[in-house]
Amino acid sequence: MTATRHGLRREHAILATCLGWLGLATAHAALAPQYYQQARENAASHLQLRIDEVVLLPDQQSGNCEVRATVLRDFREKAEPGTPLRFHLNCQTPEVTPMPGSSAWHDYERLRDARFAEGFFNASAPVHGQLAIIAAERESPWCEATSGRCDLAPAEPAGTARVLECVVEGEPPERMRVGDGTWQEWDGAAFSPQLCGRHASDRRQRVAWSCDWQPHAWTLEYASVDSQSQGVYRRVEILDPRTGAYHRRITEDTFVLESGSRLEFNHYGQCRPVPD
Questions:
Q1: Whole-number Å distance between alpha carbons of 73 and 46
Q2: What is the pTM of this model?
Q3: What percent of the chain has pLDDT over 90?
């Protein structure tokens, strides 16, 4: 029975560094999948790395691999290329068996032999130990935050017109169509007219939509100002055209928590290219 249990644990550990997915936690993961997703989406950096060395630390049962790496690129533009990193991961070896917990386990030999990796980082370490081995370095990401998949297609050449259709979490889910300088929302029967640059006002409020188009982020900002209180409702929607990841942040200045901070809501979604 012991051998079978160890065999199952080894299967989960190997999945942690296989191509196509970020590192998975063991079968005894302490967190539900949405917490891992949220950690990736909120991470400070999305790093692509060159692995320089993996050092196995004896007499440690967890955090027993020290990874020495160099930042090739940060898709969230926080870390500078060439920055050296050192961080620790859980590695399975013949002497070390994965233990229950929220952090991923990795196969030591696969990690040692890898040349490139990618993951979502806070404070110079991948969130929950999730790190994917990737086939090669490239200008666009292999991994997406929403699903944790690391088999994204290469980015299209610069200047190529591209339109994405997005589905945003909720009941019912919301849809929108974004790209080629246009941002539209589904109203239940058809996509709305262009939102970018629209303004409107009446006796109650003033509203405006503005768009910004960067290679790493397409952004729509909607602001509504109450004419009487001057309170501001603000909605910022950010789409990463390289990965299709969508994030909506809503803040309302007129509602204040006891701590004095603004009330904030976050919604996430995924966007796919619209077929020709």
A1: 8
A2: 0.61
A3: 42
